[in-house]
Every structure is written in structure tokens, then in C-alpha cells.
Amino acid sequence: MYKQILLVDDDICLAYAIQSYVSSKDRQIFIVDDSNVALQLLQLYAFDLVISDIMMPNMNGYKFLSKLRLDNRLVNIPFIFLTAKGMTDDRIKGYNLGCNAYLTKPFHPSELLSLINNLLNNRMSLKDPISSENNIFIEDVNYTDLSDLTTREVSVLKLLVKGMMNKEIASILNLSKRNVEKYVSRLLAKTKTRNRTELAQLPLSVLLRANDGTRTRE
Question: Could you tell me which residues come within 8 angstroms of residue 215 by beta carbon, excluding any fewer than 6 positions away?
Fold first, then answer.
């Protein structure tokens, strides 16, 4: 199926280089250098993914993403930050605002392409009631043990669903990478999911049941 990606960056030379590398016969990249213009285009056309810089004139990338996540029609569009702002606090702010991936400049083009492919494939899996990887109905999985999730497990799960890797989760939650791996293993067992992909595709209703606000255990 044909995919449309919106690239928002005021570095036009870089933007055209990305367009040349990422475009294909089934994927088209549209470039704008202003977040306000990007918002107007998103209201008019259906995009499958947004890639945006943070440091831009008129409206920075953080404000741009905030506006997307407040719009019911745009809230679920996958979003990648592609920026020179590489500090941990910058990354945490981006993820807290709802970005799906955060890639710092300079970057390897193949890493960006991998992120794009993963997000687009996940988006298709979520639209399809049948998991393309395991050929099962997601809603048929037994989630009876979710009431037993600890506060820390819920926190790890929320970040994992956003597409974060173990290293990023460890940084945000001030944990060791080894401890994050242990929590992910527990989540797989308690949710009866078979791999990280299934875990990241848990329905919203499941996540809400796992976040009833009564847990205090780690």
C-alpha cells in the first residue's frame, strides 16, 4: 500500500538528501520547512508518518508535536524526532510529548530507514485485527494476570509501547539495562505475549486496566 511521509526540517539540503534515500516506488516523502505549514497539510491530507526537527523558526518541534497529540484526527500518526538536540533531557521531553522515536544528528541513513519501516509496519499491524507476525487475533490473548502488574512494570510497559528500546527505558526510569530486561521478561510472562512486538501492540483497554492507580509495589 502506498505510504506518504511528511518531513519537517528547515535544513533543506538535509531534507532533500533524506527524501532521496527514503523514497521508493511505494513511499513518497513531502518536505516542508515550517511547522505551521506542516499542520495545515496534516489537516488536508492523510499522512502515514511525520519526521520533524526540533529547532525550527516560528514553532519548534516540541510545540508541533504537542498540537498533533491534542488533535483527535492526528493523535495516532507515528512521529519521529530527527534533531541535533541529543541530551537525555531533550529525549525524555520528546518521548513524554508522545514521539515514537528520537534520532539524533548526525545519524546513519539506514537507522532512519529502519525506524520508518518499523513504525509503518506497526501501524499496519494495529489497523489489522490479525497480527501479521503470529497470525493470531490480538484480542484473543489472555490478559488475566494484568491486575498483578507492579507500578514499575506498568511504567516500563508504557515506554515500551511508545517504541523505546531497553537502553532508553533504563535512562528515563533511572534503572540499569539489566533490570529493564528483567521487567520486560516479567511482562511477557504476565501478559502471556510471546515477544516484544506482541507486547508493544497491547490494546489501549488493556493498558488502562493495568494502570488503575492502586499499585505501590516495584
Answer: 149, 150, 151, 154
Q: What is the distance between the alpha carbons of residues 151 and 142, in angstroms, rounded to a whole number?
A: 21
SS3 sequence of 120-148 = HHHHHHHHCCECCCCCCEHHHCCCCCHHH
Predicted confidence at residue 125, as pLDDT, reads 54
What pLDDT digit, counting tens, does each position of 145-185 carry? 456 778 888 888 878 777 778 888 888 888 888 888 888 88
DSSP state at residue 76: T
Phi and psi torsions of 42, nearest 5°: -65, -25
- 3-class SS of residue 39: helix
Q: Are 128 and 170 in contact (CB under 8 A)?
A: no
Instruction: Count CB neighbours of 176 within 10 A.
Output: 10
Domains and CATH numbers, the chain: 3-127 (3.40.50.2300), 138-209 (1.10.10.10)
Burial class of residue 149 (count of CB atoms within 10 Å of its CB; 0-12, 13-18, 19+): buried
